[in-house]
Amino acid sequence: MSDRNPPTSNRQLLILAGLFVLAIALTIWGGLAIADLAITRIPVSVEQKLGALIVPVYEQQAEDSVEQETLNQLLDRLESHLDDGDRDYRVLYVNQPTVNAIAIPGDVVVIFQGLLENVESENELMMILGHELGHFAHRDHLRRLGRTLVVRLAISTLFGNLDWLSDASTVLVAISNSRYSQSQETQADRFGLTLLYQTYGHVAGAIDFFSRLSQDSSRNWDFLASHPAPQKRVRALQQEIQQQGYPLKDKQPLPVVL
């Protein structure tokens, strides 16, 4: 009697594997497209409710301090140039050596001590804050979170493991580990550059921090994990400064308390 179930050939295995990978890719692609469309339609009120689940975790790490108060005063100066009456942005200052700044749902910018230790002027710091406000303006922080969660959901569904959905820390991990696209970074840079000009009448200090990042990527700064800063991004900023005719004047020193 002939074997009715001959062993699967390598070619068949490759075909099956290819179909499986394609199914994952299509599931993820479809989910990402839907997520991006949905995010553009999310009301600010809903975003703030999401923030109510996330922000307290960072609030527990932050403390009322002179540094946090000063950072919020700087942010208020930038915010005064925004036509965004339904938003009220604020800074949470976390006294940890992490070199990073994060825009999170709930209109909050998280600034870590390690970042402050690596900025050299008020203008440079204001560019970073303006850059983060740019991510809010374009809803990049929600797109980044949505894409990360959709990918994880698609893969978990295919493998039948959805236990992570009940774990609130998943959202925090997604925020920490996801990255912005180059186009998102470019838009946020332009937004921050405009705010810097509106605040000071010039854009001195705009590229300083990003330039140091691109020249010293070997230091494994956390900022590079979520805000990639290749040299071409710095060149794009320089080109934008030239095209807009933004002047360069004297930079302001950091506030004494920082």
UniProtKB/TrEMBL annotation:
InterPro entries: Mito/Outer_Membr_Metalloprot, Peptidase_M48. Its cofactor is Zn(2+). Keywords: Hydrolase, Metal-binding, Metalloprotease, Protease, Zinc. The keyword Protease applies. Binds 1 zinc ion per subunit. Residues 67-240 form the Peptidase M48 domain. The keyword Hydrolase applies. Belongs to the peptidase M48 family. PANTHER family: METALLOENDOPEPTIDASE OMA1 (PTHR22726), METALLOENDOPEPTIDASE OMA1, MITOCHONDRIAL (PTHR22726:SF1). This is M48 family metallopeptidase. It comes from Roseofilum halophilum BLCC-M91.
